[in-house]
Specification:
Elements lengths: L2 H33 L2 H27 L14 H29 L8 H27 L3 H30 L4 H28 L5 H12 L6 E9 L5 E10 L4 H19 L1 E10 L4 H12 L4 E10 L4 E8 L5 H15 L4 E8 L4
Parallel strand pairs: 2-3, 5-6
Antiparallel strand pairs: 1-2, 4-5
Length: about 375
């Protein structure tokens, strides 16, 4: 998918959302003002914020498309995450405003007067919002846009809120019980909650999320398919927007490979990963000497017996300098100090007189 195709898709989807929400806002606002229902007015306000959110999404996509410059050598892709934060802020603001107005209605209640036309309009709005939510969410996933996914989720949630408003209208009509202010307050709380969840997800993306496990596994599987690659480890990915990432990886290769062979191999890996996953990848190497296979197997077996150890790699015996290096992958709860001492003792038994250099890796990818 090209950048232009993605931008057009997001813009088109956002325009559909804007037009739909503007129409819903107009109809609901008219019904709410005529009937005197705070819950319907607040429902209309929520649709208006959705329209504004779609405008923010379009602006965010346009800004994110800007080319890299001296200040931003990795491009402006993360602007999309900030647009999602703005969308979340708008949702939270509308929720707080709705809550304040609903409390006022609870303190000084006024029974709304609903017509059959009003009920039909709100019922139709529920259906429209369900369809809009599914459409926008699907397009957001297709074009990898957090802002669109957030807008789609919000639209689906709005359908639930509108259904609650419809239920309140039915209760007033059938039983004469005025729950308008209370329903508005409940809707407002849910709007605030939804906005906070959207904000948390977007801020998490800006801070830096753990890479998608399936993508990480796919990249390493692709790398392992190359002749000469024994294993792929230490994959780290830095996200600079939905379409752009940079990263690094280490590969295990036979220690007798020449510099020319290594150059061709690492270059081919970088090109393949860029082509398939749009990741600019730096490839480092670990040399593997077949003469020490038994030692490596013994060290790996000992390490894997410890709780929290996920694997080992880069086990290299340097006979000339009497050293042995090993990378151990652990989870965040592993007792690394105890593990280090145990491994050093075991290495001393296997290779007397050798110094052990143990490096602990955090499990970033899985």
């Amino acid at each position: 998918m090209t950048t232009t195709t993605r931008e057009k898709g997001i813009t088109r989807t956002s325009m559909v959302g804007i037009l739909t929400n503007v129409m819903l806002t107009a109809f609901k606002a008219a019904v709410g003002l005529i009937s005197g229902s705070i819950s319907i007015v607040l429902d209309a306000l929520n649709n208006l914020t959705d329209a504004v959110s779609s405008i923010v999404t379009i602006i965010g996509v346009r800004l994110a498309k800007k080319k890299p410059d001296e200040k931003h050598p990795f491009g402006h892709g993360r602007v999309e995450y900030f647009s999602a934060i703005i969308v979340a802020g708008i949702v939270i603001f509308s929720g707080v405003t709705a809550l304040v107005e609903s409390v006022k209605k609870i303190i000084t209640p006024e029974t709304p007067d609903f017509s059959a036309a009003a009920i039909i309009i709100v019922a139709a709005a529920v259906v429209v919002k369900i369809l809009l939510g599914r459409y926008v969410t699907a397009q957001g996933k297709k074009y990898q846009s957090e802002a669109l996914v957030a807008s789609g989720s919000d639209a689906s949630f709005d359908a639930v809120l509108s259904a609650s408003t419809l239920a309140g209208m039915a209760i007033i009509k059938i039983f004469g019980l005025n729950l308008d202010g209370w329903i508005g307050a409940v809707l407002a709380i849910f709007i605030i909650k939804a906005g906070w969840e959207m904000l948390s997800e977007s801020v998490s993306s800006v801070i830096g999320n753990r890479p998608d496990s399936e993508v990480s596994k796919a990249i390493r599987a692709t790398i392992r398919e190359f002749n000469g690659v024994i294993g792929a480890y230490d994959l780290i990915l830095h996200d600079y927007g939905p379409e752009y990432a940079i990263g690094s990886v280490h590969i295990e290769i036979p220690s007798d490979m020449t510099a020319d062979q290594i150059h061709r191999l690492t270059r081919a890996i970088s090109e393949k990963v860029m082509e398939q996953y749009h990741v600019i990848l730096t490839v480092g190497i670990y040399a593997i000497d077949a003469a020490h296979d038994e030692v490596r197997a013994a060290i790996n077996k000992t390490a894997m017996e410890h709780e929290g150890v996920l694997g080992t790699h880069a086990i290299y015996v340097d006979d000339e300098n009497k050293t042995m290096t090993i990378d151990v992958i652990t989870d965040f709860q592993a007792d690394r100090a105890a593990l280090c001492e145990d491994l050093k003792g075991h290495i001393a038994e296997l290779l007397p007189g050798y110094r052990a250099d143990i490096n602990f890796d955090t499990d970033f990818a899985d």
